[in-house]
Amino acid sequence: MNIPPDSIAEKFQFPCPNCSSMLQVPVATRGKQAKCPTCASVVAIPIADQTNTEAAGLLATTPPAVAESSIATIQSPPAPRGDTEASRLYQQIRDEVAKVFVGQDDLVEGTLIAVFSGGHVLIESVPGLGKTLFVRTLGKILGCDFGRIQFTADLMPSDITGAPIFNMKTQEFNFRPGPVFTQLLLADEINRSPAKTHAALLEIMQEKRVTVDGVTHPLDLPFLVLATQNPLESEGTYNLPEAQLDRFMFKLIADYPSEEQEAAILAMHGGQANLDKTLAEDIQTLTNPKQINRITSESANVRVDPLLIKYVNQIVRLTRSWPQFYMGASPRAGISFIQGIRTLAQFMGRDFATPDDVVQIAKPILRHRVILTAEAEVEGQRIDDLLDQLMRSIEVPRIR
Q: Where do the structural domains in the chain lie, given as residue ranges?
């Protein structure tokens, strides 16, 4: 459709008769047809500027036989960040974390998305970047219990899950809960333990319960495993099995801070301050497990357009046939996508997800679920770069 250049700047809005989304079109397209980017239906653009409910009744859906070339390209106007309970809480948590934890915005955002999506996070970084401080701070802000396991080569599965202990007084075995019976669990240097210890976390991460001697012990929700691993080139490390890697919703890369951020860290924590006192007095508890679980369940109300589901499915399936990937992502990756974009939309104050949400969390969701071929490893190719190429090869749906 040819639109006069001088009329492109003049636009008006009207509601889609099928999904009630507000659509924005150039004035010159009045009386023509357009495709709604939200519900993909073809509608007639009203001649008059009508934005009320009566105008919606005047719009008739055109037959499917309308030629694509005669359909105007329209978009919903970008929605400003809404003021919702989830968006307010998200910003308040970030502001509170910033009181003692400097930088690492991707780490903070990814962890909060995982917390409110019921997922887990794997962090790859060198020691000394404040991961323990971050989790302790987050536990205080969220009103959740905090636990830590330092993984070593001699760590046994029972050291994680707990084990029956013989009680001399009652002459019976009583179950002693292990450190996983918490809500925010920091699994520090998880790749320093062998596979049998990793296997103990599989049921815990997926089912959020512990089974010992045939007895199942449920964990309190929310439950987040925040695992850290050294780069695989480090001495004395083991590769995590693919089955366990797939249990992590995100893999986040924590890098060294910038010069300005590191200077702020030195100024903030270089005075021999008592960290426990700082967390107790300066950090406020903003929420509680009950509110977190409620907001998590409310994310199901965030609308995900069928075109967006198709877009996510294309991304996940393409990883399985990408030339440089020996193994692609599983359907669990697609589920994590949908859960993640719903939570991210909540944080942005929206009740609908967008393609930008998908792009924003694509690499954290996929980078640990794909394996490079031997040729790609020899050539020194990076998974993140290949994922960028993969994303650019797929047409983004016109949804806003």
A: 5-73, 96-290, 302-392
The CATH code belonging to domain 96-290 is 3.40.50.300
Cα-based distances in Å from 107 to 112, 250, 251, 269: 9, 10, 9, 20
CATH number of 302-392: 1.10.8.80
User: Residue 311: pLDDT band by 50, 70, 90 thresholds?
Assistant: very high
Strand, coil or helix: what is 69?
A: helix
Q: Is the pTM of this model over 0.70?
A: yes
Closest to 94 measured CA to CA, from 102, 77, 343: 102
What are the residues facing 33 on neighbouring strands? 44, 71
Return the sign of the alpha-carbon dihedral for residues 105, 111, 114, 115: negative
Nearest CA to 40 among 301, 309, 300?
Answer: 309
Residues 325-359: tens digit of each pLDDT: 988 888 999 999 999 999 999 999 888 998 989 99
Six token digits for residue 182: 């918490």
pLDDT tops 60 at residue 264:
yes
Cβ atoms of residues 318 and 369 within 8 Å: no
What gap in Å lies between CA 383 and CA 366, rounded to an integer? Answer: 9
Give the angle subtended at the CA of 9 by the CAs of 8 and 15, to the nearest 5°.
85
Phi, psi of 315 (to 5 degrees): -60, -50
Quote the percentage of the chain above a pLDDT of 90.
16
Mean pLDDT calculated for residue range 379-390 = 89
Cβ 95 vs Cβ 321: under 8 Å: no
Q: And the tokens for 16?
A: 């889609």
Beta bridge pairs of residue 173: 166
Rounded to whole angstroms, how far apart are CA atoms 200 and 187? Answer: 12
- Report the alpha-carbon distance of residue 216 to residue 227 in Å, rounded: 23
Q: How far, in Å, CA of 218 to CA of 207, rounded?
A: 9
* H or E segment and range at residue 188: strand 184-188
Q: How far apart are CA 187 and CA 150, in angstroms?
A: 6
| Single-letter code of the amino acid located at 53 | T
Worst-scoring range by mean pLDDT, 152-156, 248-252, 308-312, 396-400? 396-400
Q: Does residue 128 come out as left (phi exceeding 0), alpha (psi in the -120 to 50 range) or beta?
A: left
> Which residue type occupies 318?
L
Residue whose structure tokens are 């993969």: 390
- C-beta separation of 238 from 229 below 8 A: no
